[in-house]
Design a protein that fits this description.
By secondary structure, the protein is mostly beta strands. It has one domain (3-118): Metal Binding Protein, Guanine Nucleotide Exchange Factor, Chain A (Beta Complex). It has 2 helices and 10 strands, in the order βββαββββββαβ. It has helices at residues 32-37, 106-111, and strands at 3-8, 15-20, 26-29, 41-44, 49-51, 58-61, 68-73, 81-86, 91-97, 114-117. The strands form 3 sheets. A 5-stranded antiparallel beta sheet has the order 4-9-8-7-6, with no helix packed on it. The chain has a 3-stranded antiparallel beta sheet with strand order 1-2-5, with no helix packed on it. Strands 3-10 form a two-stranded parallel sheet. The chain is globular.
Amino acid sequence: MKMTYKGSCPCGKIRYEADIDLEAGTSRCNCSICAKKRYWGALVKPEDFRLLTDEADIADYQFGTMSGHHRFCKTCGIPAFGNGYVEEIGGAYFSVNVACLDDVDAAVLAELLVQYMDGRNNNWWNAPAETRHL
């Protein structure tokens, strides 16, 4: 069931609301950027994401296929969300950093389903052999 959550970076320069069905699952990836920043994502459609702050405070990093925008705060550096377009996952998307959600109880977070993806080897639909570090 979708619920509206508020999210932010630690310094508060990035703030958003998103309608998310956390019970549908979350994801972690072992590609170079996701593994290094330990990104924990939940996908939402663009109409379910509302940025509440000025984009001037948000930096953007792209690499590889340039299909994803890895957005982060220019002040504190935290990746609060990302967005892009990937046909294989349904087109346009926003990825909310679950760790940046402000109003989710830790006990709920601990129970969330996590799908692991082997992005490092372009084997996105399968889990990598090792996931404990993600």
